[in-house]
Model the fold of this input.
Amino acid sequence: MNLRYVTCSDPREHVSLESIVKLCRMAPFVEIAVQCHPSKVSFDMPRYTWFNNIVKEAVNMGRGPRLAVHVNAEWCNMFCKGVIATELIDWFFLKNWQNKPVIYRWQLNMPKTTAEQFNPKPLAKLITNHPEHEFIIQYNDNTKDAVQKLHETGVQFSLLFDASGGNGKSPAQWEKPIYRKHPMGYSGGMSPENVIANLDAISKVVPANRDIWIDAEGKLKSAELFDEKPKFDVGLAKGYISKVKYWQNQQKQR
Done:
C-alpha cells in the first residue's frame, strides 16, 4: 500500500499562510484541503481572501502548498449538474509554471438529497472535459448508489471512503477498494493518536501495489472555537503528519 497524499482538512482564515506552507514542507505527500461553500467563501469574504493568498503562493509548485478543494452545499449541487460556481472558476482553471492545475483535486461532498436525485451524465461530461483534474466523491451509505451510476458512465474519478459522512467517526471496519480502477482514500476519525493503528488496519484490506490517501479533519481541531466551530490546530496537524512519516519509515524497513 502506497500513500499518495496525507490530507489536512478544513483549516480556516485564522491559520497563517506561513503555517500552511510549513505543514506542506514536512513531507511531499502533505495536502491542504479547504472546505468551500457559498456561505463562507463567496467573493470578498475573509475566507475567500485568505484562501486566494494561499492559492497565489501555490502557483509556484516548487515552493507552494499542495491544495485541494472540498466543494459543499449549493456549489456541490452545481458541479453535479455540470456547472462550476463563478467564485470557483478562476481557482479551477489556474495553472502553475508547469502549466498544470494549481488545485488538482476537487472533492464533491454530495448531500443526501443530491445523491438521491443524481443524474450522472452532466458530471460525467464535466469530468471528461477536464481530465487534468482529479474528481473525488465521498463513498458512504448515502452516496453509494450515485457513485455506482457515475461508475457506469465509464469516466475516471476517485472515492473517499467515509462511513460517517464527515462526522469524524472511525468505521467498525475499513472497506477494501470498491472498484479496481477508481483510486480510493480513507477518512473517519483519523488523529495523531490513532493514525498509525488506522494505517495498519487499512493496509490489511488494501493490496500491496495499491495507491491510497488518508484525510483527517475533526481530530485536527482543538476545543477552542473559531467562527463558532472547533478551531484547526496546527500542532495537531504536525503530530498527525509526523506519525504518518514514522509509519511510512517503518514500512520501508520491513
